[in-house]
Design goal:
The protein has 299 residues and is an all-alpha fold. It is built from 15 helices and no strands. The longest helix has 35 residues, at 205-239.
């Protein structure tokens, strides 16, 4: 009974008879029609495919870019229009210039990533698994890490010449630092209680490393790999400015001399696409290797 009904001396309406009548007539039970028409916000959001939501920003940027170019607000000498860039990219692909440059750049990144990855992971294992190794390695690596690796280009040219070696060395250097920091942090971030549990179960030193420490450090290693790939592409941009006769950086240098902003943007777009593909592969590898570690994926 509500307060108003109690004051007025009225009894609350009996809804049991109406409910019984509805039950006898076979009316389906459920929420009132007004409530049934309410659609949760999350349901409306999920009804739109995620890939479509993710394309809204880039498409809007392209439309705005094309409009500015068509109206003359953005001059071709400053930045070519998306249509011009697409035509230029198609021409570079058809004559084989762009595929050839991509192959050369990918080879440089792959070799630098392998060399830097092996060095970074090895140093992280030595430093992370042993206090003596940490005393011998970590201080030196931290000191070298504070030096801007791009500033090493003049020394690499003096030491290694102007061929492929300084370009690959620059990529390897950037990759090694990121992997070292993340793998080392992953090893030292393993829960000490898990180590104690493994010890109580009879695992020796190498058993603990294999079954407890390395699996616990794997998420950090995957994060380091993602950062390393991004750094590898960045180092490639700088490295290919050093007397390159092929590759994406070589195309960009030639385009800069002739003020071809369309070619420069094509190369930048290729860099971005290759970086996204590499990140996608690392994400797929992460999902495969870390199936045992469920994480929050957003709501």
């Amino acid at each position: 009974m509500s307060l108003d009904q109690a004051v007025a001396g009225q009894a609350p309406p009996d809804t049991s008879a109406g409910a019984a009548a509805l039950a006898e007539e076979g009316a389906p039970a459920g929420p009132p029609p007004e409530l049934s028409r309410v659609v949760p916000v999350s349901g409306r959001r999920r009804s739109v495919p995620r890939w479509l939501r993710r394309t809204v920003g880039p498409v809007a940027l392209l439309v705005l870019w094309q409009m500015l170019s068509a109206t003359g607000a953005l001059h071709e000498d400053i930045l070519a229009s998306p249509g011009t860039i697409a035509a230029t990219g198609a021409g570079l692909i058809s004559d084989g210039t762009l595929p050839s440059a991509m192959v050369v750049s990918l080879q440089r990144v792959a070799v630098g990533l392998v060399l830097g990855g092996v060095a970074g992971v090895a140093l992280a294992l030595v430093s992370g698994l042993s206090r003596l190794g940490e005393d011998l390695v970590d201080a030196t690596v931290q000191m070298l890490r504070s030096i801007p690796w791009v500033g090493m280009i003049p020394l690499f040219i003096v030491w290694l010449g102007i061929g492929e070696a300084p370009k690959i060395a620059l990529i390897a250097l950037g990759v090694a630092f990121h992997l070292y920091l993340n793998v080392y942090a992953g090893i030292r971030g393993v829960d000490a209680q898990l180590v104690e549990a493994g010890t109580s179960l009879g695992l020796g030193r190498w058993g603990l490393i294999r079954h407890v420490v390395l699996p616990g450090a794997l998420p950090g290693a995957m994060t380091g790999l993602r950062y390393s790939l991004a750094t590898a592409w960045l180092a490639l941009v700088f490295g290919e400015q050093v007397n390159a006769d092929d590759g994406l950086g070589f195309l960009m240098n030639q385009a800069r001399e002739f003020f071809r902003t369309d070619v420069i943007v094509v190369c930048l777009v290729v860099y971005a696409i290759l970086g996204l593909l590499a990140d996608f592969l690392v994400r797929a590898l992460e999902r495969l290797l870390l199936q045992w570690r469920p994480t929050f994926t957003g709501r």
